[in-house]
Amino acid sequence: MEQIFDAIVQAITLQALGMVALGVFAGITVGAIPGLTSVMAIAVLVPFSFFMTPINGIPFLLGIHKGALFGGSIPAILINTPGTAAAAATTLDGYPLAQKGEAKSAIQMALYSSTLGDTFSDIVLILAAFPLAAVALLFGPTEFFALMVLGLTIISAVTGSSVLKGLLSMLIGILIGLVGQDIISGSERFTFGIANIADSVGIVPMLIGLFAISEVLIQSEKKIVELANPPESSHLKGGRSLKWIELFQAKWAILRSSCIGTAIGAIPGTGAAIATFISYALAKRSSKRPEEYGKGSYEGVAAAEASNSAVAGADLIPTLTFGIPGSASAAILMGAFMAQGLRPGPELFEEQASTMYGIFALLLVGNPIMLLQGKLLTGLFARLVTIRKSVLVPIILLLCVVGGFIYQNNIEDVKLALFFGICGYGLRKLKFPLAPLVIAFILTETAEESMKQALLLSDGDYFVFLTKMAGGFPVSGFLILLSVFLLGMAIWKKPWAEAE
Amino acid sequence: MNRKDLTVGIIFFLFSLIYFFYLIPTQIISSFAQTEFAGRIFLPETFPQITICIFGFVSLLLVADTLRNKVEEKSTPSLNKRPFFQSVIVFLASMVYVYLLEWLGFHLSSPFFLAFLIFFYGTRNWRIIVPVALLVPISIERFFWISFKVMLPEGELINQLLGYIKG
């Protein structure tokens, strides 16, 4: 206990708090600008974290993730355009409230419920992470390989509208992950003599290309008038502050949505958008005033926002404990952990326990920081909604180039980022989800290593994945069969596609 | 039937054949003789072979699924190619910029790049374009140098010129 306390005290420095605050500010800023996603922001800003210690750099990125989920509610309320996909449900009640002249109180409700939802999921993450990591430590390479197969199957099956495209995206990720040196034999694979990818494809140029440059190209498709002119801002000036009684009346909606957001967020591949709509629907069903939903209900805003923010902490549960990222943003964060020399997985909690306690403490501290920034800077963030994209998008592209360059001080990485940018653009146009690709890319090395270790231990018997017993139970066999079952279910009928 | 998916499925399947029969044999340079391995599973080719076989199979499934789905794609009255060309121009401009970065460096090429893009995206007000194009690159460069001591590309041409001036 004393060790935990010491680790937390050492982690909470003025510098670390400053980095969290900066991350939250950057996150809210990006979230407040319609069309710019938190995934893109994290991808662009990951290289900045390399110049910081893990205890400063990781909370900075986590701050972006947190801030963007709340920030997305600002344009949703003000101009009926969600800043992020997760904030889509917020428009249903947020915008009608803004039309009534209650934009300020609606944003405050979004802020309070986001903070509460996020805090709830952070607490669950902290409580669950260490015990789950302890369980994961009992796993051998066979179980880990099976777990990765399950994780990748769920992500491919759930993300996007087509299971087959999800699977193909995941397989493309593996193929890219195979480029470079084979971890067992040291052989060079698919490098085409290019020195820059002799070890492996750099994760940062890939992330910047897939998520940020492709986003810039997608934004470039918009009409010039739309890009050059600021959006309509007639509802920016909004009346009264939120009353405590209104927040109190939404307490059950916030609690229920926080639980749903946390539970769904912990399942790989599901994401905040699904959690938000389920929470919104349940809140409406359980409300004493369901007729107000869709016409400007504070409860509706609270349910949507608590739920989408609750995903922020929860999707780190599989990422940190098992090393299997549950979403694109979690995958990028995992990449940042790895670049900082911290490999997510059960060993992380054993070898770097004090760092993890410190990161968790800063994760929690990020919530009151977000509350404070939201309270004090709402006016500023609201103005961001009206920023011209014709100025913003070129600056983002410039930051992408700089981010690619500073990764290894190499211009070749910028070229690689541009290559992945055009690939990401093409895949997005063809409706291929990018999350399975990135997650598979990150997991390829570990998956191949685990598979080969498992086969080595079983003298090359492929049935080991079905028959090996762990603690008297065929864990890997169960996980593989579950993967097959889920995949079959997803191909046969994909109920969540309709819900999406 | 979605023609795009059908084309993608066929291209991906053909790619899997090229990958299996051409890329794997030519692009995997083993540093060990095969006999040193305990079995085939430990060869560097094995995992790529398994992956590409699944990739080819799923590509065929995509083709089959598209052919089976008889619902016709909603025909668009007139295909608007403008958005696509706008993206292509931005991408080409980025490629030119990266090339210029190597020669002219960050300081000289970035203002032109920013000014071009802001103008291209429809802002014609030079009181916005000029300050943004000049101040943003300087701010970024100063930020990286002061905070992290990272020097952004100076450019070959500039380096040579400076070397020539210094004698």
Give an account of the 3D structure:
The complex is a heterodimer of chains A (500) and B (167). By secondary structure, chain A is mainly alpha-helical. Chain A has one domain. In chain A, 74% of the residues lie in helices and 1% in strands. A two-stranded antiparallel sheet of chain A has the order 1-2. In chain A, a hairpin with a 6-residue loop joins strand 1 and strand 2 (188-189). In chain A, helix 5 crosses helix 6 and helix 7 (103-136) packs across helix 13. Chain A is globular, with a radius of gyration of 22 Å. The mean pLDDT of chain A is 85. Chain B has 167 residues and is mostly helical. Chain B folds into two domains: 3-68, no CATH class; 82-166, no CATH class. Chain B is 72% helix and 1% strand. In chain B, helix 1 packs antiparallel against helix 2. Chain B is flat and about 60 Å long. The termini of chain B are far apart.
List key phrases describing it.
heterodimer; A: 500 residues; mainly alpha; two-stranded antiparallel ribbon; 25 helices; 1% strand; globular; B: 167 residues; 2 domains; 5 helices; flat
Number of domains of chain A: 1
The overall pLDDT average of chain A reads 85
Span between N and C termini of chain B? 69 Å
- Overall body shape of chain B: flat
Helix/strand order of chain A, N-terminal first: HHHHHHHHHEEHHHHHHHHHHHHHHHH
Question: How many domains comprise the coordinates of chain B?
Answer: 2
Number of helices of chain A: 25
Poorly predicted residue ranges of chain B: none
The number of E-state strands of chain B comes to: 1
Which chain pair has the greatest contact?
A-B, 61 and 65 residues
Please tell me what the overall shape of chain A is: globular
Distance between the termini of chain A: 44 Å
Helix content of chain B: over 70%
Question: Hey, roughly how much beta strand do the residues of chain B contain?
Answer: under 5%
List the total number of helices of chain B: 5
